[in-house]
Amino acid sequence: MSADSDRIELRGLRVRGNHGVFDFEKREGQDFVIDVTLHTSVSRAAATDDIADTVHYGDLAEDVAHIVEDNTFDLIETLAVRIAEHCLGLAEHVEVVVHKPGAPIQRSFNDVSVTVIRSRDTTDAADSTGAATAATVDDEPAETEAYLNLGANLGDAADTLEQAVAALDRHPKITVLRRSSLYRTAPWGGVEQNDFLNLGLIVATSLPAAQLLAVAQGIEVACGRTRELRWGPRTLDIDLIRFGTEPAELIIDTDALTLPHPRAHERAFVLAPWAELDAAAEIRTPTGPRPITAVLSELGDQEITRIPAP
Description:
- By secondary structure, the protein is an alpha+beta fold.
- It has ten helices and 14 strands.
- The longest helix is centred in the middle third of the chain and has 14 residues, at 157-170.
């Protein structure tokens, strides 16, 4: 793309669509705002003064609107890429911004958006050689198993947990391998509140641990989670407990993430679902690795009840 390339812009196209990781977003829909910038020469159209020699922005608006209306995606990233791929048939270089002003975030915010930039030459080059394609495949990170614990005690907690499990499994780089039963547990930390429902998941993911945690926190936010009171009521809580298995278990301690979870061995609501999924697991404790079932048996004073499947 040359520095002096011409541009055709379509901004602020508002279209109703059904995109999002949660069922209510797909069911109820919301408005999306689309900006499209096409980098393409208008010299011929300027010379002929003929609409056939340029991009018809009315047709462009309709095409983009139909992509939004006629599809259902979990992520606006996917929506933005689909629009960009269509627009590459009209211009050498495109920029697409998808805004989601109704994103289910409980904090005050102005906008949520994803920007995708694509060029026809780089796309063609990546697709035209087997070497480029092979390199992409070879560079794909290997999958790692991780254990997640989910909890909720506000609203319809069981339904929220079901939606969260489905949202995790729909992520293109996360696969839910096994899920535990539901467990009813007494609240932790001394805050007066309702009992929690908890469940455990073993997932396989090609994401690094920090990105897996970020996905989990994004799902929490979409369910209305705020972080105002430590150990307080939760619409949804997703904790990353372990990333990797011996001998390749990730051990890390930063401001953003500590693995394995430093207090997992103290909490029956973490260990009981985990033991159901992997009774042979060994977990780290202050005295060294120990069988999960042995550690769990020592937490018998914590109130936790397995809920039979309906």
